[in-house]
Specification:
Blueprint lengths: L12 E2 L2 E2 L5 H6 L1 E5 L7 E2 H6 L6 H10 L3 H5 L8 E2 L8 H14 L4 E5 L7 H15 L3 E5 L3 H4 L5 E5 L2 E6 L1 H7 L6
Parallel strand pairs: 3-6, 6-7
Antiparallel strand pairs: 1-2, 4-5, 8-9
């Protein structure tokens, strides 16, 4: 999707344009990716949300508020200016995930990719993160890769993959009614 590898067959269209014809900077700026393992850089919380872009502090704060990260930020003496070490080892897994969601939201992508973004958090943290995901997915195309059904229940279309092939397609309710792989 982001042309880290060139397409071997077929085509991928973004707004009816083949991604091969798009400039890489433009193409990649259309996406935000939240992975299972969040990488944080040494610097402040704010710089880890900004990632070198010229996003305003107000936008960073709004994104943090929208993904429920502000209670944590407000508990820190330096707030957004709190220093983070590389990999964010002083933060919990849930705090790192919420920071990644704030990062994605602050960049306001056209397309959001969530790749197992809730798989390494406990159930209580997942509930908080699920609210952040709902906010993040609002009004944008989202591709969600997940094993937890709670992460994908609200998706418009779910593709059930098994052994490298699409086996079932539908909404959560449709797939449950089929009593197939998704149901199992």
């Amino acid at each position: 999707l982001m042309r880290f590898y060139d397409i071997q067959r077929g085509e991928i269209l973004l707004d009816s344009r083949n991604i091969r014809s798009l400039e890489l900077e433009y193409l990649r700026s259309a996406f935000a990716v939240v992975l299972q393992d969040v990488f944080l850089f040494s610097g402040t919380l704010e710089s880890n949300i900004r990632l070198g872009s010229d996003i305003s502090r107000e936008r960073v704060l709004a994104a943090a508020q929208d993904v429920n990260l502000m209670p944590f930020i407000n508990s820190l003496p330096k707030g957004l200016d709190h220093e983070v070490n590389e990999r964010g080892t002083t933060l919990s897994v849930g705090q790192r995930q919420l920071l990644a969601f704030a990062r994605a939201l602050a960049h306001d992508p056209q397309i959001l990719i969530l790749d197992e973004a809730t798989s390494s958090v406990d159930t209580e943290t997942e509930i908080q993160i699920r609210k952040a995901i709902d906010r993040l997915m609002e009004h944008r195309t989202s591709i969600v890769i997940a094993h937890r059904l709670s992460t994908i229940q609200k998706c418009d279309k779910i593709l059930v993959m098994h052994k490298g092939r699409v086996r079932e397609v539908g909404t959560h309710q449709q797939l449950l009614a089929q009593r197939g792989l998704y149901y199992k």
